[in-house]
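Need the bound structure for adenosine-5'-triphosphate, inputs here:
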Amino acid sequence: MINIENLTVKYGGVVALDHLTLSVADDVVGLIGPCGAGKTTMTNAFSGFASIAEGNIVIDGMNLLALPPHKRACWGLARSFQKVQIADDLTVADHLKAVCDAKGVKSKDRAAQINHALDFVGIADCADTIGEKLNPYQKRMTEIAKCLVGQPKIVLLDEPGGGLSETEMLDLRRIITQVKARFGAHIIMVDHDVDLIRDVCTSTAVLDFGKLIAFGPTRDVLQDEAVKTAYLGR
Ligand SMILES: Nc1ncnc2c1ncn2[C@@H]1O[C@H](COP(=O)(O)OP(=O)(O)OP(=O)(O)O)[C@@H](O)[C@H]1O
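Answer from helper R.:
Posting the output first, comments after.
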């Protein structure tokens, strides 16, 4: 169970997250809202890139915010970025090894974890390919595989489908919905793609001006009048 309690983040006079309180337990949770609503700030609060004015994030009884950012990764917090973080001159396997280094994965476990993650996202044949030779789909899958080594507990995905074709999006849906069963990690996904959110997120939270305006089963949330007005433009 992830309990976000009274979470407040300010940038000078801008209140990016305003006393946000939310409890989530689903395998895949969506986070949506208009531009500037506070979605990235929330993922930054989890990973330690936002300075917290007030509040807590408590996961299975553990206060995440008490851990320094690098220890959050070792504990099991993983994050993918909207703009993929892939170096041109490193192979796919090198990227995953670097994450294993950062997370302190034991040498004897590395190969198995890397193979498992690459098999799962379907790019095992790219293990020795350098970043500049990967196509956009393979880069996206590498970004997700990076999140899956080191026994993650929570994976934050920021627009994981950016730049993918319709067929590739079908693969992405299958991958996202199987992460909990195959790796044991919960996913919190930020996206503007309402179809993707509807298909893979059992529950969804909606932010507007840093406040939570709706939370619940995704289908109900997407029918909510306040959500339609603030976000869906209907
Ligand atoms: N480093 C910063 N300094 C000052 N203000 C910031 C900073 N980062 C974000 N903000 C402001 O905080 C608010 C929330 O921004 P945030 O990026 O979290 O929104 P978002 O929902 O992720 O938006 P988008 O969908 O456009 O990515 C916005 O008003 C934004 O301008």
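Comments: The mean pLDDT is 94. Residues 11, 14, 16, 33, 35-41 surround adenosine-5'-triphosphate (CB under 6 Å).
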